[in-house]
Amino acid sequence: MDFLKISNLSKSYGGVNANSDISLSIQEGEIVSIIGPNGAGKTTLFDLITGVTRADSGSVRFQGTEMSHLPTSDIAKLGVVRTFQQTKIFRDLTVLEAVMIGHHLHDSTTLWQSLLANRAARDQKQNKRDHALEILEFMGMADMRDLITQNLPYGEQKLLNIAIALAVEPKLLLLDEPAAGMNPMESLRMLGTIRKIQETGITVGLVEHNMRLVMNISERVFVLDYGELIAEGKPEEIRANHKVIEVYLGRQASA
Amino acid sequence: MIEFIPQLVINGIVLGSIYVLVALGLTLIFGIIDVVNFAHGEFYMIGAFVAFLCVSHLGLPYPLAIVATAVIVGVFGLITERVIIRSLRRRDPHPINYVLVTVGLSTFLLYGINFIFGPDLRRIPSPYMKQVIHFANVYLTTQRLLVVLVAFLLVALLAYFVKYSSLGNQMRATAQNFTAARIVGVNTDRVFASTFLIGSMLAGIAGALVGAMFVTEPAMGIHIIVKAFIVVIVGGMGSITGSIVAGLGLGLLETLAGAVMPAEFLDIIGFSIMILVLLTKPTGIFGTKGGARA
Amino acid sequence: MPRFAPKGILILAALAMPLVFNEAFYQHIMIAAVINVILAVSLGIIVGYIGELSLAHGAFYGIGAYTSALLMVKLGLPFVAAFPLSVASAGFMGFIIGIPSLRLSGHYFAIATLGFQGIVVLLIINLVDLTRGPMGLPGIPSPGTLNLFGWSISFGDKLPFFYLAFAVMIVVLILVRNLLRYKFGEAFIATREDSLLAASLGVQPRNCRMLAFVISTALAGAAGSLYAHYTMFISPDSFTLGESIYLVTMVIIGGRGTIVGPLIGAVILTGLPEVLRFAGDLQFVIYGLMLMLVVIFLPKGIVGLVDQFKQRGAPLGN
User: Fold this and answer.
1) What's the CATH fold of domain A1-79+170-255?
2) Which residues of chain A have pLDDT under 50?
3) What is the mean pLDDT of chain A?
């Protein structure tokens, strides 16, 4: 069974086809990238998968479960988590507190336990803390745990987004432009981080413009243009694909 | 009973005209600046007091007093935008903050005027209250006729202005898409200031008219603002047509239904209609702005 | 236990105050302050932790007061039954009103609550057979007398009532702190900051908002019950939009997003009117001005101001 199977997914906004009849599958344990010029519909695809927007037609199946009309929080419960492009989230919290929020689904504290602040509640909170610290260690951010998120530099904020998503313990992690705005050194670090994430057993899907990162890390690449899937395959195949080259030479290429 | 209906209809149109004038300012400010001005009722109230002072203390003729009121309250609105709204815009422009700041302004103005003038009821002496027109079972003071005429004239002027003038076009552009408007060079600061100026002016004129027709008192702002909200929500935030239709509609509804049921029930109906609209089509009957859903 | 010391001292001081200032006038202010703390802190859950502005808190305060009063006056229930029932009824009404309202946000939500505030007051005024309308409801009994170790404590007296109200307030503060410290507080903050992001983490924004709203209105009902059995006469005038605005002002000036903020705001805005009583209406002019200044220059209120001098405050009660 395909880990994530997207079939004939379509979404249009007032006459503009953001996604047209897209079909693709992701296998468990892979790292795949979705590339394409600006406006190709990459973020829309993520939005459709994670329930941020509802598709006009088509289906999204994750481990066999149909997700296309589930609300975003249910999709997260199934194990599909995404990051967003914006930074500056949870402004007034510390890095540690922000990551702890990601662990929400695994916190079994009931309302009663919370109100009474009994042992169960405190244990759960301590668990969350420990788990969050582990993630921060994993991401190499442990020394930043008491910093206020809005004071973090840009690169670290992107890493924080990922740390928070990891706290949900996803099976499929969808990263929306994780390397956007990064210099080569930061991108390299991001590459290493993504690889480490894959090694823990998480399947990763990326939307990216940074071609070096994409070509280096992906096992397979999907290319979107004007809402359609125009090519898919291994990075070398995509690099040599005429249609893809045309799409990128004819428009503004990045990286 | 039937013979009263023409009278009630005329009264309804008069009342509706007031609602339209007040709601117009509120809906423009919301549509263009995305600010809900809780102090709008106080601009109306200040308009009444300014006109009152002009007539009783400065001895100006009533029509001149209305013009003076328009100017003074307009400037007042301008100052509010420049000082208060703009400061907030530069710092923490969350929608709720605008509500809070205008609630604060409303409290400030209401109790300020109450402190200065006391809560007594006054009435602006207007020559038009003494002349009565009579036709077909309907009695109408010329003051009431004036209200309708002024409202009609101002609405027409506003519509013309918004559609054909350069500033009007800029206002519409800003209302549709703030960022795009800035990109094409619209001076949004100036648009915002003008919007507050115009909106407050309309409210002030309404106050000057009502202050002669019914009463001038510090609390009059609170009574009108609730009605204005109902009109703006039902008609559509940002829609001039909506304010006209909903304003006249509310005026007629209140007058006609008010003949058969007590006033408090009317208010409950008004609130309920507003809430119903908020839940089903928060942009109102004619509105097109989005962003209401949680 | 050094960590508890500052709070402990404050609590002891607060408990001692009505004994030190034992004129009825001062004790009345302290009781009013305690009730306002409950109101402000509960409103603070919505304003500070969900990030929405409710202009209907006065109405829920009134629902609690009238429910409690009517249960004791008309059905002869004892206070220990009327109190929890009025908490439940205010919470229930919060649920009913929340179902439609919480689908909205920002100014639309505020306006919807404005509408409900108006409707509730109008209903209280108009259901004269039940509530005696604008004439108000007199003869509300006090919480009764307690016979302990041969002593008879009457809660109709100010001093015992103060301690009763104070105890309720402490319980409320502890419950609210606990609520916000664990799972739910984080969910509220996540929902407030970015409900889409929160959903992507598995938080259910709609349920969060409803939970917060219902708890908030239920606590307002508790305050209402206390108020009714203290003043023994209630009328719709105490539960109007003006009251809602007054409560909002407390939360904002004290500092939204914390528990302490609304508490400070409540104490200040209860005490200040007494100090400024000579100024008449001018004091409201000052409150309006304060609200404007705080929103523009001190978005975190007094708590924020204090924070600028010390470590970051504790939004999660950590």
Assistant:
1) Rossmann fold (3.40.50)
2) 255
3) 87
Number of structural domains, chain C? 1
C-alpha A207/C-alpha A47 separation (Å) is: 12
Strands A228-233 and C145-148, sheet pairing: unpaired
State whether residue A117 sits within 8 Å of chain C by CB.
Answer: yes
Residue C207's domain spans which residues? 26-239
Rounded CA-CA distance C109/B96 in Å is: 10
CB pairs under 8 A between A and C: 96
Cα dist. A206→A32, A160, A248 in Å? 6, 16, 18
Low-confidence residues in chain B, pLDDT < 50: 290-294
Q: Do A104 and C203 touch (CB under 8 A)?
A: yes
pLDDT of residue C186: 87
Asked if residue C158 is part of any domain, the answer here is: yes
Interface test with A, best of C181, C196, C197, C259 (most A CBs within 10 A): C197
* Cα separation, A113 vs C178, whole angstroms: 9
Residues of C in contact with B233 (CB under 8 A): 111
Task: Kindly report the nearest CA distance between residue A244 and chain C, in angstroms.
Answer: 32
**Mean pLDDT score across all residues of chain B:** 88
What ranges make up the beta strands (E) of C125-243?
145-148, 151-154
Hey, is the C-beta of A146 within 8 angstroms of any chain C C-beta?
no
- ipTM rounded to 2 decimals: 0.88
The pTM of the full predicted model, rounded to 2 decimals, is 0.88
Three-class secondary structure assignment of chain A: CCCEEEEEEEEEECCEEEEEEEEEEECCCCEEEEECCCCCCHHHHHHHHCCCCCCCEEEEEECCEECCCCCHHHHHHHCEEECCCCCCCCCCCEHHHHHHHHHHHHCCCCHHHHHHCCHHHHHHHHHHHHHHHHHHHHCCCHHHCCCEHHHCCHHHHHHHHHHHHHHCCCCEEEEECCCCCCCHHHHHHHHHHHHHHHHCCCEEEEECCCHHHHHHHCCEEEEEECCEEEEEECHHHHHHCHHHHHHHHCCCCCC
Residue C291 lies in a domain: no
Amino acid found at B150: V
To the nearest 10°, report the CA torsion of B167, B170, B172, B175: -130
Rounded to 5 degrees, what are φ and ψ at B219? Answer: -80, -5
